[in-house]
Amino acid sequence: MRKPIEKPKSVGTATVFINARLIDPASNRDEPGGLLVKDGLIADLGAHLRRNAPEGAHVIDCKGNVLAPGLIDAQVFTGEPGYEHRETLKTASHAAAAGGVTTIVVMPDTNPVIDQVALVDFIQRRARDNALVHVQTMAAMTKGLQGEEMTEIGLLKRAGAIGFSNGKSSVINTRVMRNILSYAKDFNALVVHHTEDPYLSSGSMNSGEVAARLGLPGISKLAETIMLERDVRLVEMTGGRYHAATISCQESLDVVKNAKAKKLPVTCGVSINHLTLNENDIGPYRTFFKMRPPLRKEEDRAAMVQAVANGDIDIIVSSHDPQDADTKRRPFAEAADGAVGLETLLSAALRLVHAGDITLSAMLKALTINPARLLGLHSGRLAKGAIADLVLFDPGEPWVVNKDLLRSRSKNTPFDEAKMQGRVLRTMVAGQTVYEYAGIERT
Amino acid sequence: MTSKSNTNALKVFPRRHLLTCEGLSAQEINFLLDLADKNADHIRNNGRKRDVLTGRTIINLFFESSTRTQASFEMAGKRLSADVMNMNVATSSVTKGETLVDTAVTLNAMRPDIIVVRHHAAGAVELLSQKVDCSVINAGDGAHQHPTQALLDALTIRRAKGRVAGLTVAICGDIVHSRVARSNINVLNALGARVRLIAPTTLLPSSPERLGCEVFTDMWKGIEGVDIVMMLRLQRERMDASYVPSTREFFHFFGLDHEKLARAKPDALVMHPGPMNRGVEIASTVADHSKSVIREQVEMGVAVRMAVLEALSAHLPGFAEDAQ
Asked: Which residue out of B242, B244, B248, B251 would a mutagenesis test of the A interface target, given it has the greatest number of A Cβ atoms within 10 Å?
């Protein structure tokens, strides 16, 4: 494999975090202690560093707050290239840093689509020069995301593509999907699929009572589940590594559980929105709650949370999808899908912890080591020698989301004015602090 | 010589048609290769045409366009003094909607001695053979078989290496659509060679290991230490159907270049049934390299087809009178 374009590591002074609550889901660590960062790597960690700072090191007193591996967000849409007015790699990375996210995986739904080696190189160069956090590239699995012709999966992977996705659409042609899974297997490439049968999903929100009352055309869960069932059959036949990008309902969960029971190479993710919101939040046609898959019923949301807690769902993504007023300030059915989520990812996830639905460690697992393993990254863990991608957060600090203060270039958050408990105090990428909470937010 | 070899042929090669390599014994194959070997030497020594098939009629019936195979069969027939007729399918009744069976019955009524058939559908030659009284040679049916190609490949290997048994042969490229690959797998296995298949999974048939081969999806590993590298032609239409993403990527991972060839044995031979896509499955310089026996393959083609015609002629009615 070609050497990935990496951010320069900070060399020289050591930094030590003392008086921290170290949480590392990879090693089941949750204990008071400290952590020493040197030359961009974790040089040492443990209880013995809780109060003892090595001489000459820059000391950060965590005051008992949580120090965890930086979050890895496997599904981030940006607007670069093509829609820079919505988001650039730079603005997305600032949002990520503020949210405690140290690695973002950017999706190929750009203009042009990331379906060629030169475009993977472009993303990596732009990220190296402009982004505060690590940026990994999800390449398109079909040319132009048209679902008809396979991309150069072998060469794209060599160029650094971390996985292959068809963006916001499914590959409808079953033969093409079968060939992609077969071909990807030869290169041990990960196929990440948005599962949605377009013939069953022409509506604009979850089909059911709320849609009926609002007079909106519904999107059946079947659209998601049928495509997922098909894919699992193809995985069974081809043995290709498959990840269902974002599932949203109990039925899909059952499909994934069955596939896992058969030891198939199948994993799945869920978006933070589907863990914390439901279709009732749409209320009076609030388009910031319009997304794909659509927000489902409360029972489905609860099932998703439960599945993250017990490990049936592997990863949580923000599914950060910047949209501007042009695309969102429209009648509900005509408005674009998607919500930004990088900056609120951790705080929103902490809601579930505070509600007692999931442990802090289980939640962090789905945001750190699980995505790292899925994507083959060496980050996502607190271990000697691991890259010093870290997040320091206060799980209890209350705050209110103000969309105007978001670093993302687009402000389409479903959490505007929402009360949150828990916020990021500091984010470190490869030993360099890329975000520090100033106490009072700028206005 | 004619009399002796033909009498022998009836015993060693008791077949009226050559439709497939599946089920051919090593003895049968070696008999054909021995005959072909003599023909090859005969031609190299500027020998005149032989009179084995004097007064016999061969029809080359090609439903699929072909230059080299058709020319090779025509040359082989003429070198044995047969009258060879090339049926140009494009101007025949086939394009007017006649079925394959009707064409067969019509031709049979003209009482040819041997028909050489190529057809785009697997099994078509077999079907035709059931409807005629003469001998039928399969010159390629769909993705099924191309027996004379496998025999000429075996002869080329035998002449270059002195043997086939014990050699490791890698067949690389579009295997799922290749009749050449299927025929070669049969012949090489029958002769005791070890066969490896190298291709992306999308270009492999299902359960390829059941064909008696070792399967590799990584060419760098598959080519390690082989004696023979046999490349197959990648058809461009495979790209549209998403079997492979691009010729560039295919060449990068599955094309034969000097770097990959260096992993094979130092005296490895490079083969290709033609026509080649230079820069797609084979680098131009490899195709023209001293290790390449691609031209010898064409040469052996005529010799092998002569041998097959000769062997089948032993079954023609009236052979006994000829012999006396």
From this structure: B242
pLDDT digits (tens, 9 = 90+) for A244-262: 999 999 999 999 999 999 9
Q: How confident is the model at residue A443 (pLDDT cuts 50, 70, 90)?
A: very low
Cβ contact (<8 Å) for B218 and A185? no
- Give the closest-approach CA distance of A233 to chain B in angstroms: 16
3-state secondary structure of B116: strand
A31 near B CB under 8 A = no
Mutate to test the interface with B, among A2, A145, A148, A149 (most CBs of B within 10 A): A149
Check residue B64 and give its pLDDT.
86
State phi, psi for A30 to the nearest 5 degrees.
Answer: -150, 95
- Residues in chain A with CB shorter than 8 Å from the CB of B242 are 142, 148-150, 175-176, 179-180
Contact A308, A270 (CB under 8 A): yes
Using one digit for the tens of pLDDT, what is the confidence trace for A310-320?
Answer: 999 999 999 99
Mutation site for B-interface testing, chosen from A183, A235, A236 by largest number of B Cβ within 10 Å: A183
Is the CB of B202 less than 8 angstroms away from the CB of A183? yes
With left for phi above 0 and alpha for psi between -120 and 50, is residue A276 left, alpha or beta? Answer: alpha
Contact A150 B200 (CB under 8 A): no
Mean pLDDT score across all residues of chain A: 94
> What does pTM read for this prediction?
0.90
User: The complex's ipTM?
Assistant: 0.85
Q: Which of residues 110-169 of A touch B (CB under 8 A)?
A: 142, 148-155
For residue range B141-168, what is the model confidence (pLDDT) as tens digits? 999 999 999 999 999 999 999 999 999 9
Q: What is the pLDDT of residues A51-74, one digit of tens each?
A: 888 888 899 999 999 999 999 999
CB contact under 8 A, B242 and A155: no
Q: Check residue B317 and give its pLDDT.
A: 72
